[in-house]
Write a structure and sequence with these properties.
11 strands, 426 residues, alpha/beta
Length: 426
Amino acid sequence: MITEQGNYNLVVSCAPYEKKQADTFGGYSTTEITAISGVLTVVVSLSVAFSTIWKYRKDIKYLQERNDLEKQQISVDNAKEKLEKFFGPLSALLEESSILYSHFALSEKENLHARGDYFRTLRYITDSIGVDKLDTHDKAILEKIIEISEKINALIENHSGFVDNPEFHSLLGKLCSHYKILKLAFDGKLLEQSEHLESIVFPLEINGAVDSEIRKLKSIISPQEQRVKRYSRTVNYYNNNSFMYYSKTYSNDMNHIYNKVRFYIENGSRILDAGCGVGRDTEYFIKHGFKVTSFDASSEMVSFCNQYSFAYCEQKNFLDIDFPPIFSLVWACASLLHLNKNEFELTLHRLFKATKKHGYIYFSLKKKNPSASEFIEERSFYYYDDNYLYSLLEGGLGMTLVERWETVGGTSLHEDTFINYIFMKK
């Protein structure tokens, strides 16, 4: 273009510049979309991984639960088999033999008892006269006892594999030996040998041992619901000091009390050791032919009691128990004294329920010392006077006081006086 002045101006015409748009989607750039996709991939992968792990753990848990149930069922089936094929029949045969024996040689037993002596069958039938001196009644009974003993021997020989306890195996061996010697004596092959047979005795522990095994098997077949254990200060004390308590009480001479109580019950009776502690009394009664059910609130005390091979002690609180009336004796030695008034009354009602008609409840309480505290060595002690006890047991439960006496003993630094009671259920 030429202007008026004759100058030339160069005019360049350009199209308007348009900015190139980046590839986008939903307002996000490709780079951003790629990053987001990567994150989502990781999230999805983690979700799949966690889902797989969760499912795997769930499957493992299911398999474990099924395996546990199968193991439990196997244990139940094994327990049923042991009970049905060995321990149940053994218990029945022993009971049958015991009943027959209680009617055998009655006059001879009475005569020996009056002289302060005791009756022994082997001694009785191995003197110079032997079985021939038996009257028709006694001979018939002894024949039946021999028949039963042979059944027991056969049962043990055929099914002793059901016994897991080595000490129980040894006990069964003693039982078989006794029965075989008895059979030889009955056949007249041991005449004038009684002085050499004094060590051959019926193993009294067998009754309690079989009973304990049966209760153990029944607990496997029909397990009770386990309650959450809430320990009182007293139970905690016994858990923490069980060995000290064992060392101070296990060797205590209790024969005076044992003899008093045993006067009222028949040999072989069923006893409930309520609050058994370390099992001193449980062991004594089983060793003398009784069938003993024992329990204690302290897990450590239960462990001590179960160290005796023929005991089966369970961890129970007094307010947990609910036994039918099957016990000839309820034995609560220095155990009820830890219960407050409400617990004491509820417990006595439960122990009363567990006692057979014409059975007995023995218990001991501390005598109140005016200078003593209710809390000794972190244990709680409660004291109840005679008027309250007679009102509760005689007036409320209709029981009869048989004996009341005092003894001295204890585990503290000083000796305690205990009041002992025996009540009879009418």
